Fold:
Amino acid sequence: MLWFVELICALSLGGHAVAAQRGTGGFQPRPSCVPNPCHPGVKCTETPQGIVCGPCPDGMEGNGTECTDVDECTVKPCHMGVRCINTSPGFRCGSCPAGYTGPQVQGVGLTYASANKQVCKDINECEGLNNGGCVKNSVCLNTPGSFRCGGCKPGYIGDQRSGCRPERMCGDGQPSPCHEKAECIVHRDGTLECRCGVGWAGNGYLCGPDTDIDGFPDEKISCPELNCNKDNCLTVPNSGQEDADRDGIGDACDDDADGDGILNVQDNCVLVPNVDQRNIDEDDLGDACDNCPAVKNNDQKDTDLDKLGDECDDDIDGDGILNHLDNCKKVPNQDQIDRDGDKVGDSCDSCPYVPNPDQMDADNDLIGDPCDTNKDSDGDGHQDSRDNCPAVINSSQLDTDKDGKGDECDDDDDNDGIPDLLPPGPDNCRLIPNPLQEDLNGDGVGDICEKDFDNDTLVDPIDVCPENAEVTLTDFREYQTVVLDPEGDAQIDPNWVVLNQGREIVQTMNSDPGLAVGYTAFSGVDFEGTFHVNTVTDDDYAGFIFGFQDSSSFYVVMWKQVEQIYWQANPFRAVAQPGIQLKAVKSNTGPGENLRNALWHTGDTSDQVKLLWKDARNVGWKDKTSYRWFLQHRPADGYIRVRFYEGPEMVADTGVIIDATMRGGRLGVFCFSQENIIWANLRYRCNDTLPGDFDAYRAQQLQPDE
Structure:
């Protein structure tokens, strides 16, 4: 007999009907829900037409008889970056990322997953009681998933390392008596100093605007000190306030500085009245101001300051020995000692133990070529044979007790029998002999050095080097001229004029690259000054130097006004870009065309110059505009940082730079093809203390790369 099966579909929503069987011989028994033919968990219903399976459970799809899991993660129910885990059935989301808060969502089905997505909200750490972990009174900046600490809030000064204190507080935590535009400085003896900020001048208790940043306010302010008087040149820095004719207009901005009715540009004695303009020797100076009226001497050099120029002075150094008999014509030496017999006295001999009558010094390091080894183990600028601490960095070469051993490597600097640090020390007056260690007030500082630590007769608050009796005040009156391109006559050498008792330098000529270098060598130092180009006719380089060891080894901070290709393409093409640049000079040729072009070029030049930093703004200096720079150099650790200000606003900051090319040296100023440059209100100060940002920089450098 033929058997057949007829399928009967039950119109049941979402269900599935199972057909009855029939054939010859009548109906067979109807299928039932026992055992359940549907997918586990799916309802089974018996109908006249057969059984019906309900819809698949949430989180599954199929016909009721067969159901498979749905992957809810395909609709991305979890917060970005949070792991979605598909389960059977359903899904769940992991925890919100660090810095966010929200529920750990889980559920079943696409509809639920789409309608109930996980939301992780950023935690604002800055709203907490502890300012997000930033120091009190500083700015806490919330960022997605995190935060960062900024600077101090308005009205506060400091940083994240030292804390933020009210702006008008002193470093000892006491309220500041200073003007709101002044800084309170606490000296080692506890005394306070108020110093007006950049762009302000006065005595610190009262400050007024100072447009040209020369230390004198634009208008007189009500305090008795000299630097409370009105600036006699408002827009030209003249920190000495020189005024030859006493007309209230400073020489720096007076068209007729001597008041003789003849303009400066035509006057052969700019600072001395001489209506007749008499000039017997026909040099550049009239007889009224010429210290050698009958002998040409445009440089007016007067070594012994007797008002008689060297060119016509039969005893140039004023030591009582006539020039033709004097073996050191420009250095006083009545003893005339000459140990090497080269007819050059030891006092002025660059090689006192090796004959060198020509005194040649190719690298300008003040050591004659025959005895110049250039072997300097510690890199402090002093060759080992002359270094009083050959294995310890001590560019200053300070030797307080004159025992031949520098203080940096001497356990007893003052030779009083009390070691500087070890028992029975430490010595409470390290630089002044005091074997009894008297200390009446018990403050740890011996009575003999309480106010003047180095015994140089200048109290510490005004002493620029309180621990070096050989350096007391900023003074560039004695300087070494270094010409960096001595060959050829395409340009002339720089002409330096020193004013304000050595605290201001003016360079008047469009010249070859050159330096004016002071003779004082420094280890750690802070160096600041006001920079001003007093012309609109040129656009080249001006700046300053530090760490000068010789004419092949120094750091230079230089500023170009506009982009320019150097006009001499030999020995190589050099392109100067506008902006401030910090370079380490280590030249294997020394002064000459190679170093000249390397200095002009913005970038590295092999075996000549390394560019350590360049201001990304590419902004040149402005004509007749004053800028203030601040340098911090700690050569023992290679720390360098330079900041530039235009008025009270900081316009450039190198940040922390670590470089150990030069481990200390001398300071000076730099020019290259730029005339009428003023470096005013110059200040230097010995300082070996590492700035607070050094540790933070080191910690950042030690963090592993992510």
Notes: The chain has a mean pLDDT of 92. The domain at 479-695 is CATH 2.60.120.200 (Jelly Rolls).
